[in-house]
Amino acid sequence: MPVTPVMTNVKENLEVLRARIDQAAQKSGRTGQDVTLVAVTKGAAIPAILEAQKEGVQIFAENRVQDAQEKIPAIPGAEWHMIGHLQTNKIKTALGLFQCVQSVDSVRLATELNAELVLENRLLPVLLEVNISGEKQKFGFEPEQIYSAVDEIKKLTQLEVRGVMGLAPNTDDGQARRASFKKLRGVFTVLKSMKGDRFQMKYLSMGMSDDLEAAIEEGSNMVRVGRALFARKK
């Protein structure tokens, strides 16, 4: 007998997700309109991504360049962000796919991105990834090092720094997650006072499917959500 595929009810999931975002935003004196939703397509099928786009999702994200190469051509008209670690040997390919890189995690990566952008004569919006979890296996600038790194990155002519991004620790401890969000908000606040021609702290990108409420309550205005949007029916 043929196996009936398990379908994803994106429309219903999105309604629930938007309600969660709006409720959390209200607790911090804002509305859901103040929080940008980035739909993470890791593991999601193309029909589900197209359904999300049909329901009004405008920004999508991928962790890996290889997966993006398969999906992006099939989703015309969408904005795509790179959110995973970007290897320097994949920079040229990534620049042909993404409109923003949220995971600039070193001065070296920023410098090599800038060099390729000079050749292409274009600017690129980026976010700086900060390691707020303290976990050694995660990428990102150390919070105490980000300010000196910014001094170097601000000299790069083709990068438009638009905010910071971070991942909470991999733990069930809600207080530890919230503490990491507070830490990133503190970094964001300090960086907002720093000036530069192409340096403007607009986005505080933190919060995912399991912890977006805490992130938004702590000031996030951009959440990266995959599973809560593309979860399959049981």
Report, as a whole number of angstroms, the end-to-end distance: 20 Å
CATH topology of the domain at 60-216: TIM Barrel
Strand segment tally:
8
Structure annotation, total helices: 9
Strand order in space, largest sheet: 7-6-5-4-3-2-1-8
The radius of gyration computed from the alpha-carbon positions, rounded to a whole number of angstroms, is 18 Å
Query: In which range does the helix fraction lie?
Result: 25-40%
Question: CATH first level of the domain at 60-216: which class?
Answer: Alpha Beta
**CATH architecture heading of the domain at 60-216:** Alpha-Beta Barrel
Structural class: alpha/beta
Order of helices and strands: HEHEHEHEHEHEHEHEH
Instruction: Give the amount of beta strand, in percent.
Output: 15-25%
Shape: globular
Unreliable segments of 5+ consecutive residues: 1-6
The CATH homologous superfamily name of the domain at 60-216 equals: Alanine racemase
Q: Sheet bearing the most strands, described?
A: 8 strands, parallel
Can you lay out the helices and strands and say which pair or pack?
Blueprint: H1 10-27, E1 36-40, H2 46-54, E2 59-62, H3 65-71, E3 79-82, H4 91-95, E4 100-104, H5 107-120, E5 124-130, H6 146-153, E6 159-166, H7 174-192, E7 199-205, H8 212-217, E8 222-225, H9 227-230
Parallel strand pairs: 1-2, 1-8, 2-3, 3-4, 4-5, 5-6, 6-7
Describe the structure.
By secondary structure, the chain is α/β, with parallel strands linked by helices. It has a domain at 60-216: Alanine racemase (TIM Barrel). 38% of the residues lie in helices and 19% in strands. The protein has nine helices and eight strands. Strands 7-6-5-4-3-2-1-8 form an eight-stranded parallel β-sheet. Helix 3 (65-71) links the parallel strand 2 (59-62) and strand 3. It is globular and about 45 Å long. The two termini are 20 Å apart.
